[in-house]
Design a protein that fits this description.
α3 runs antiparallel to α11. By secondary structure, the chain is an alpha/beta fold. About 45% of the residues lie in helices and about 20% in strands. It has a 5-stranded mixed beta sheet with strand order 2-1-3-10-4, sandwiched between helices. It has 12 helices and 10 strands. The chain folds into 2 domains: about 180 residues, Bordetella uptake gene, domain 1 (D-Maltodextrin-Binding Protein, domain 2, 3-Layer(aba) Sandwich), CATH 3.40.190.150; about 100 residues, D-Maltodextrin-Binding Protein, domain 2 (3-Layer(aba) Sandwich).
């Protein structure tokens, strides 16, 4: 019985997308059971936190549980692949992002999925920018001083990299400045931050969310941030764009996606509700708390952005 009910809801939504039945009737048929939302990372990170903010809202609005399942591994590829293979009936979604759908697929020796053709990209959630930080003992006060300092070092200056998007920002900075910067790879942002705080490594490119506590305490010094504009909590930190590096603008974004060929009527409704969740007091508070940026985009605009990022 449950199978027939779920299939009936999907058929109605699919028909609605071609104008065969009223869209409102199809939308009201879904969801008829709980919706799985795969987070392809461990619990507690930015993807998990944002996922839980929107699932609480979606559960309230649609009167069915939206249940988070953490399926980490391979930089987000394992959990994402599960969703790429799922039925496009709206009952299996994924908290996608730049790591799992841009960086990891490009780096993978064998392509586990096509990040565009195997998914329906529903809505942008947001994410933290990358920040260039140094140990306060370094004799530099700003990015210009950092450039001058690196040029005086015969062996160059090393920088901690947690991999994925922050690593790309760091490499793009090295290329733009032609500085002798040596990348030190870490398995995550927290160990990289810890080594800069401990003065084992003089600098790092990490997410602002990870670095924020140490920036407030003065154990790290921020030099530049990759956001589109200055961050309210750190108004004295200039953007890379202000400093003459407009190409170093971007966030470690997360989003909501589903399998390819989801009914357009369902996608539009989910997109509207996710955007509403992010504009709610809880959503705004969480974005501010984690120093995240977001953009109020429809599904088509967001999908274009994913293609641009790739």
């Amino acid at each position: 019985m449950k199978h027939h009910r779920a299939w009936g809801a999907y058929a109605l939504l699919y028909a609605a997308s071609f104008g065969l039945v009223p869209a409102a009737q199809a939308q009201n048929a879904w969801p008829a059971k709980p919706v799985r939302v795969i987070v392809p990372y461990a619990a507690g990170g930015s993807a998990d936190t944002l996922g839980r903010v929107i699932t609480r809202h979606l559960s309230d609005v649609f009167k069915q549980p939206f249940v988070i399942e953490n399926r980490g591994g391979a930089g987000g590829l394992i959990g994402s692949q599960m969703v790429a293979r799922a039925d496009p009936d709206g009952y299996t979604l994924v908290v996608s992002g730049v790591g799992s759908h841009v960086v990891a697929p490009i780096q993978a020796p064998e392509k586990p999925f096509d990040p565009i053709n195997d998914f329906t990209h529903i809505a942008l959630l947001g994410g933290p920018p990358t920040v260039l930080v140094v140990n306060p003992s370094l004799p530099v006060k700003d990015e210009k001083g950092f450039v001058a300092y690196v040029k005086t070092q015969p062996k160059g200056v090393s920088w901690g990299s947690p991999g994925q998007y922050a690593s790309l920002i760091g490499e793009a900075y090295r290329k733009a400045t032609a500085l002798d910067l040596v990348q030190i790879l870490y398995k995550g942002a927290n160990p990289a931050v810890a080594d800069v705080v401990g003065n084992q490594v003089p600098s790092a490119f990490v997410t602002l969310t990870t670095a924020a506590g140490n920036l407030r305490s003065g154990r790290l010094r921020p030099l530049a941030v990759s956001s589109t504009q200055r961050i309210a909590d750190f108004p004295d930190v200039p953007t890379f764009k202000e400093l003459g590096y407009p190409q170093l603008t971007g966030i470690t974004w997360f989003s909501l996606s589903g399998p390819a060929h989801m009914p357009p009527a369902l996608v539009a409704r989910l997109n509207a509700e996710v955007r509403q969740a992010l504009q709610s007091p809880e959503g705004k508070a969480e974005l501010v708390k984690q120093n995240m940026e977001t953009f109020d985009w429809d599904s088509a605009t967001f999908t274009k952005y994913v293609k641009y990022e790739i």
